[in-house]
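To: structure subgroup
Subject: Chain for Friday's discussion

All,

I'm putting the inputs and outputs inline so they're searchable in the archive.
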Amino acid sequence: MDLHVLRSFQAVAEGVTVTEAAAAAHITQPALSRALNRLEAEVGAELFQRVGRVLRPTPAGRVFKEYVDSVLDGYDRGRRAVAEVVDPDTGVVSLAFLHTLGTWLVPELVTGFRQRFPAVRFELHQADENGLAQHLLDATADLIITGKDPGHPLITWRRLLVEPLWLAVPARHRLAQRRRIRLAEVSAEQFIVLKPGYGLRSVTETLCHQAGFSPLVGFEGEEVETLRGLVAAGLGVSLIPAAPEAAAAPETNPDLPIRYLSLTDVRAARDIGIARLASRTLPPAARRFADHASQTAPGTEGAPAPGA
């Protein structure tokens, strides 16, 4: 067997038709079919079964695919490592990060890094907290930027910064003219939150419990921008980072459809950190980016604190 056949096997096992896989491999469909038959003979098991007009992996095929994925991933990473040794100013950084960080932190870090290493490319992935850790464990990302320590024995996490959180209320809300508030004062309000599995959801629940109540969830979303839109529409309140246009002085900007109030009875902030697999040596480009992120992540000036 060769790598080209393994890549075609991988593609077909993931749902690509034999015709499409053959076109991608620049061979004819009968030639690829014969190659897959030879692969089955070498492995000693039937790897596919036909379901209608589509091939589906057999139980043996699913098991074999796990090892094929590992072989191809190792080969591709090996090629990357060699290329970066030959030319250390190039390479690829595979980075996964929280959805909420895609509007400010990640673009800032990538832009600053590319100014120093313009030939480096990035593969970017977005996920919730659980999905981020899986990216590392599945070797689909070199690094993740996440809202908390994943707490996994195979993952090493390092804090980059502390991001302030604010109580967002509609501009016409009864509390909109306030600048500071105790979280307990909105215990009867409907909260607009991210879905379970997102780090900001667990932070919201923890802060509310610290304030002595469980949040009454009115709406759930998958993006912070969606939460902001629902708050602006008057559908509830939310614990979120300030919008980029309000970040400089969120509690004093009267022209926004949302008012951001600082909280005095809880520490309204969340950790943002970068993580990697402890046992894996990072490629040079990824290692440089991790160092760059640690050295240049924005500071925490303006973060609200209890009693502020």
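Points worth raising on Friday:
The longest helix spans residues 59-86.
The two ends are 67 Å apart (CA to CA).

D.
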